[in-house]
Write a structure and sequence with these properties.
The chain is mainly α. Helix content is 73%, strand content 2%. Strands 1-2 form a two-stranded antiparallel sheet. Strand 1 and strand 2 (116-118) form a beta hairpin. It starts with a helix and ends in a 12-residue tail after the last helix.
Length: 265
């Protein structure tokens, strides 16, 4: 029998799942709810509620229920924030390589969100998404959502998460992983810059500005193709970081002590 407590509990499941699906880029683009995403949120929420769901108190006041709903939104956005950070690693690597190529001003505009993205960042972002789906990274995120209902059950108002320490450490590791991801092409471009500078001193008659730009773009594309096999270990490290960060976040949700200084070893 469907009671008010059951509907309230299912609503909290919908809120946490919906917050994740709105903010996580792999489940769609833009903040608007499209038809397929609404159906996906309802389906996932129904399955999770059927397997782990429990009723809440039936006599909740609107203020208390609103606080519970706010907590669910924060948890869903926190899970999605991990994926956004992981995707930011690939975009940052693309920005670093694109600036070295001289294509920092060449941007594409997403017609849905209106956000401008550099061309090379778009390439690295596409590589990341393809690899993310190939290693079932979206399954890891959905599994983390399911685990969050076990470690941080609905019906609570406490929001005791060490988010400040975790976010600071996450951003530090994001920058480090982005540098590592772009390192092969970056080193190649540095050597090319030294070569062009030496050539300009040896042969002053050469128009270095015109020739250098053509060389940098062409050779950088060749380097991206040559070093493509080396990207695979860096991508796997990024996907491992996603799982590690999700586990740390879930530990914080469950109230377990989180050793922030030990993140990333």
């Amino acid at each position: 029998m469907i009671t008010t407590a059951t509907l309230a509990a299912f609503g909290l499941y919908l809120i946490r799942t919906g917050a994740l699906f709105v903010a996580a880029p792999v489940f769609g683009t833009g903040a608007a709810f499209s038809g397929y995403r609404i159906a996906l949120v309802f389906a996932v929420s129904f399955l999770l509620f059927g397997s782990t769901g429990a009723e809440v108190e039936a006599d909740l006041s609107p203020i208390v229920f609103g606080m519970m709903a706010l907590r669910e939104v924060m948890i869903g956005l926190s899970l999605a924030f991990i994926l956004v950070l992981v995707q930011l690693i690939a975009r940052m690597a693309g920005d670093l390589v694109g600036n070295q190529m001289g294509l920092g001003m060449a941007n594409q505009t997403d017609p849905v969100t209106g956000v401008q993205t550099a061309l090379i960042s778009r390439v690295y972002d596409t590589i990341f998404i393809i690899g993310f789906l190939a290693v079932d990274g979206h399954h890891v995120l959905l599994r983390a959502l399911s685990d969050s209902f076990d470690r941080a059950p609905i019906g609570r108002i406490n929001m005791e998460l060490p988010m400040v320490e975790l976010i600071v450490r996450f951003f530090g590791e994001t920058f480090e992983a982005g540098i590592t991801f772009a390192a092969p092409v970056m080193v190649f471009m540095l050597l090319l810059s030294v070569l062009i500078g030496t050539l300009a001193r040896v042969v002053p008659q050469i128009n270095v500005l015109e020739m250098g730009f053509t060389f940098r773009v062409g050779l950088a594309l060749v380097a991206m193709y040559i070093f493509a096999p080396i990207i695979s270990p860096a991508l796997m490290n990024i996907y491992d970081l996603q799982s590690e960060w999700l586990n740390l976040l879930l530990d914080g949700m469950s109230g377990q002590p989180v050793m922030v200084e030990a993140i990333g070893g």
